[in-house]
Amino acid sequence: MKEWGNRLPARWVRRLPGAALLLKAIAEAPTGLLHDPNLLAEIVTLEFVVFALDALTLWLAFRGLGDSPALWIAFVSFIMASTAATLGPIPLGLGTFEAACVGMLSLPGVAIETALAATLLLRGFTFWLPILPGLWLARRAIASE
Q1: pTM
Q2: Which of 39, 58, 90, 126 is the most buried (most CB within 10 A)?
């Protein structure tokens, strides 16, 4: 624990509520998993599959709207929009993802109207729709207390 305390950028961090527990948990975490090449390869593969399936969902939203840009356009646009959402200052990339995705889709010539509709459908299916069961479960958990 003392080793972590010396590496902190400021002493006030240790005084934050819960910081001591967090630092203790980090210090006690097993580091062997970080050096497992099989695990790292599996994680990278699964992350790529998640991105590929999300990009496929975007492409299928285009198909549902009657447009069919190349699959690589949907993939690259999704990756760039995800990057913009991750790097942007807005929580969960709300608005940042949509703007970046529509902008990237419009560069190779996709109509802005179709790009916006497909992007909003994607966000509805992959972001907002999964929130509903979580809200229901959270309300149920709060009510049972």
Answers
A1: 0.74
A2: 58
